[in-house]
């Protein structure tokens, strides 16, 4: 099917999430019904006009340097915060709306697409016979231009009104196909609203899936996109676009209910039940009989916990397509405490160290984080009884190779101190044969005593114990923290422009300089990759 393009303005600041837990706001309730393409075309689009002003934005649309007549040009306010940088409303600090860890991501994208597709302001015009266009009565602001014509499509970002002539060169663009199916049965879902959202923000392509659940966006500007699908009564789904086709699955929302008990008997009122899983976090308070209910959940595995004072209850629950768990019991039991200090040699405290506590129950890992105070102390209060693992990281120090094991099964408290050695300096620069820095090179350092690079020179995806990895910055510089002094094997993995390389370095080293050789132009029979690299170490 052919997509109907909807040109839209800047992203809405805060929108509700798709998963609305009864109290915290995590279940999907679409504000508008999804529609087939015919009904979508009939929907009334209520857009505000762009704020008026005295300025004009002029430009010319071209294809391969020649003017294009009849191209549609739309101006939208430039998104000050692009989609890729918007904070997640229901996630950890620093999580963005596009991160998989953002539980509200899918719902927020669905609501954003709905607003962008039908209510956001824009201004549009058509290029004349000479390819020129003019957008009048604009206020002093920066605008994004989106254009479509008989030959191609274009996106031009951040054009100030009243500036010099805007050049809008059309390109062939790319095609994206989206297939939407029922998450349980796999059958196609026609009439699903599908939106293609650029990471730059401020714009959306919107269409409805056909009888086979497919939507085709035949020509969009090249760039990075996310796609989101929504249908009334189902949980939205979203995904980054990594190829020419994306598959999405929409599930019916599930619910989970149960009771919080004391010693397995009496219900406990007013206790907060916390849920984590599938990128979601939410909580609610138990009723007078200790009962609770959480709604709007996708199938998957969840961790539940409830705490009152120094009593704790936890459970792992699996929600499948067969039914909704309704008899989950959380029985409050006394909990334990884990404390300790993180120090340098001679008992010098390390403030700001990150201590991670890992507890595994029923195949599900529960992680907790703590940060050391100015005197190097950390504390985990009310920890579930049982076996725990502790790991520690501190900038400029060598972390233990293995986590520390502890047992809270018998005693109600556990104390674990860590002494970290200073890390060896590992800084340098990756350059081309002309001495220019190369960005985006993966640098992997492996302790030579443990294991070095593979004989074939292939790069491993994992980081070995005691090793570290980094990506080079724009100027080719890199720094790897947390390594002990000694001899290390390195592997350098650049893009296809350069050969990869491997070798050996000695740490500490603060001025490593590693040179990569450029690949020749591709031939029908590619040459075998040589393992050649030139390196210069400080003083060598």
Helix content bin: under 10%
Mean pLDDT across all amino acids? 82
- The total of beta strands comes to 40
Structural class: mainly beta
CATH architecture of the largest domain: Sandwich
Q: What's the CATH class label of the largest domain?
A: Mainly Beta
CATH topology of the largest domain, by name, is Immunoglobulin-like
Largest sheet: 8 strands, mixed
Quaternary structure of the protein: single chain
Low-pLDDT windows of residues: 1-43, 450-461, 524-540
Structure description:
- This protein has four domains: 45-169, Sandwich (Immunoglobulin-like); 254-334, Immunoglobulin-like (Sandwich); 336-419, Immunoglobulins (Immunoglobulin-like); 426-536, Immunoglobulin-like.
- It contains two helices and 40 strands.
- 39% of the residues are buried.
- The chain is globular and about 85 Å long.
- A hairpin with a 2-residue loop joins β1 and β2.
- Strands 16, 17, 18, 19, 20, 21, 22 and 23 form an eight-stranded mixed β-sheet that branches.
- The chain is mainly beta.
Please render the helix and strand layout as text.
Elements: H1 37-42, E1 52-63, E2 66-67, E3 72-77, H2 105-118, E4 123-126, E5 132-138, E6 142-148, E7 153-160, E8 166-169, E9 174-182, E10 193-198, E11 205-208, E12 214-220, E13 225-230, E14 237-240, E15 245-250, E16 254-262, E17 266-267, E18 272-277, E19 280-285, E20 291-297, E21 300-308, E22 311-319, E23 328-334, E24 336-344, E25 348-349, E26 354-361, E27 364-371, E28 377-383, E29 387-393, E30 404-407, E31 413-415, E32 418-419, E33 426-431, E34 442-447, E35 468-471, E36 477-479, E37 486-493, E38 501-507, E39 509-515, E40 534-536
Parallel strand pairs: 1-8, 9-15, 16-23, 24-31, 24-32, 33-39
Antiparallel strand pairs: 1-2, 1-5, 3-4, 3-6, 6-7, 9-12, 10-11, 10-13, 13-14, 16-17, 16-20, 18-19, 18-21, 21-22, 22-23, 24-25, 24-28, 26-27, 26-29, 29-30, 33-36, 34-35, 34-37, 37-38, 39-40
